């Protein structure tokens, strides 16, 4: 569940998070009769009205008004599909179980009204407020809301998972044992992918070999916590939402997820928020563990869909939102490599590129296509159609840059791969895959592999910079104030 699905006033949900692997479809005309009857039964309403609202990725979101009862402003989450075994996302019934336990413990989450006994449907109280943190333009108000979120996240982390008694989690174990469960799930989903993912395979191997030695008590980790997944109004957080990735584990796991969402939607000065968290919980921020869990979070996100991720233009083919999928996929690949390098203690300085332009014979065709798409977006009466059209323009911008400077960047990468492999690969993708295989086998040094993939991903990112816009400049937020001493880090943090 996302915050955009609960709020009555939230704008159209950004394409920053979990994507369905299926093409986006138009919403159905009305709520199924079986669900309408169930809502009437559990609420005691005389009648209901229901309106589907944007948001929810592959799950539907509905505003429901139950007439003739007190507290009739409700919110329905509905997924017509059966739960997928082995999915990273909990079924709605389990998400409801988690939220009900938290609500009973006094946490700032929506109240669960009812969970359907057989269908994937959960009825919640409807909570008002805004979702997207960037809508707050007053810096002082930003700090007030951010502090309140940290206060409420810290309160959740202070809860004893044993007292929450969430049966679907199973017994409360050590942090290391819960981490083993997370890694096993990631590996299982990786092995079910329809295409090889050598970079992900290397990251999972590294994560399994380098688990933190932390023996503190586990906490309830929200996963995907932070701006965009809480709601706020009048300077305070009204609800923390989206518990479909929740699990038990290391508190630094949630700090890593918070920093990931803060990279997408800047969340005030991050070290200040971490200092507040330390004071509220008594838990010291462990920078190295946060970097480990940053890599874990990005590796987990990579298993949300079944396609290839090591390609330069990795996206979900068949989705009308492919343009937005493209730029956010690139963004997260860059964050993954940055996290891997920092976790491994390697130098992750960014490169400066000055590629030589190639033949410009087709550039005017790309520009003409962009003008057509811009005009279509302006004329589109349907906001969703306008979004998809703008996404198509992103694809064209990327192809335009590939046509303009792609050959020169590829030439440099082929030379680098040849130096590491002994021969020039048949293609960039083949070379990257072979390099990963040899690194896993131990015939290529880990540092050499990560450094090469960092160069490769930066080239991919450079080709996508025009399509990505402001996202190109964003990166992991600092964990300490020492990070701000470098001018480049200060500039990127403020984007």
Care to describe what's here?
By secondary structure, the chain is α+β, with helices and mostly antiparallel strands. The chain folds into three domains: 93 residues, Phosphorylase Kinase, domain 1 (2-Layer Sandwich), CATH 3.30.200.20; 182 residues, Alpha-Beta Complex (Aminoglycoside 3'-phosphotransferase, Chain: A, domain 2); 152 residues, no CATH class. Helices cover 49% and strands 9% of the residues. It is built from 17 helices and nine strands. Strands 1-2-3-5-4 form a five-stranded antiparallel beta sheet, with helices on both faces. The chain has a two-stranded antiparallel sheet with strand order 6-9. Strand 1 and strand 2 form a beta hairpin. Helix 10 packs antiparallel against helix 11, helix 11 packs antiparallel against helix 15 and helix 12 packs antiparallel against helix 13. It is globular and about 70 Å long. 42% of the residues are buried. The N terminus and C terminus are likely disordered.
């Amino acid at each position: 569940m996302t915050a955009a699905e609960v709020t009555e006033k939230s704008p159209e949900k950004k394409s920053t998070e979990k994507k369905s692997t299926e093409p986006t479809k138009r919403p159905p005309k009305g709520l199924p009769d079986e669900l309408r009857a169930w809502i009437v039964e559990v609420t005691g309403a005389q009648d209901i009205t229901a309106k589907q609202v944007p948001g929810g990725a592959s799950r539907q979101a509905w505003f429901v008004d139950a007439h003739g009862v007190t507290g009739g402003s409700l919110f329905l989450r509905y997924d017509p599909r059966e739960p997928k075994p082995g999915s990273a996302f909990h079924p709605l019934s389990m998400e409801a179980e988690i939220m009900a336990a938290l609500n009973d413990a006094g946490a700032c989450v929506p109240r669960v009204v009812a969970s359907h006994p057989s269908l994937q449907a959960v009825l919640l109280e409807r909570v008002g407020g805004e979702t997207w943190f960037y809508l707050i333009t007053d810096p002082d108000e930003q700090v007030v809301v951010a502090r309140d979120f940290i206060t409420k996240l810290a309160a959740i982390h202070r809860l004893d998972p044993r007292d929450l008694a969430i049966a679907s989690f199973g017994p409360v174990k050590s942090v290391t044992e819960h981490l083993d469960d997370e890694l096993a799930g990631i590996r299982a989903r990786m092995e079910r992918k329809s295409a090889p993912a050598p970079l992900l395979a290397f990251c999972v191997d590294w994560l399994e070999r380098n688990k933190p030695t932390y023996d503190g008590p586990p906490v309830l980790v929200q996963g995907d916590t932070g701006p965009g997944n809480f709601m706020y109004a009048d300077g305070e957080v009204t609800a923390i939402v989206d518990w479909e990735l929740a699990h038990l584990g290391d508190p630094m796991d949630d700090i890593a997820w918070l920093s990931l969402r803060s990279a997408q939607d800047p969340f005030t000065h991050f070290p200040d928020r971490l200092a507040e968290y330390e004071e509220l919980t008594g838990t010291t921020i462990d920078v190295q563990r946060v970097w480990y869990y940053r890599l874990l979070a990005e590796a987990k996100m990579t298993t949300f869909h079944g396609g290839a991720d090591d390609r330069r233009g990795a996206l979900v083919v068949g989705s009308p939102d492919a343009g937005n999928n493209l730029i956010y996929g690139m963004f997260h690949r860059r964050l993954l490599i940055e996290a891997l390098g920092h976790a491994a203690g390697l130098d992750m300085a960014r490169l400066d590129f000055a590629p030589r332009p190639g033949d410009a014979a087709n550039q005017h065709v790309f520009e003409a296509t962009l003008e057509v798409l811009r005009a279509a977006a302006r004329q589109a009466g349907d906001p969703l159609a306008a979004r998809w059209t703008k996404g198509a323009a992103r694809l064209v911008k990327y192809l335009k840059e590939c046509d303009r400077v792609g050959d020169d960047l590829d030439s440099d990468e082929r030379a680098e791969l040849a130096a590491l492999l002994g021969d020039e690969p048949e293609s960039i993708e083949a070379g990257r895959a072979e390099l990963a295989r040899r690194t896993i086998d131990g015939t290529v040094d880990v540092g050499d592999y990560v450094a090469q993939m960092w160069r490769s991903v930066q080239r991919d990112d450079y080709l996508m910079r025009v399509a990505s816009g402001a996202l190109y400049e964003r990166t992991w937020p600092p964990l300490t104030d020492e990070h701000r001493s470098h001018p480049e880090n200060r500039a990127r943090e403020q984007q």
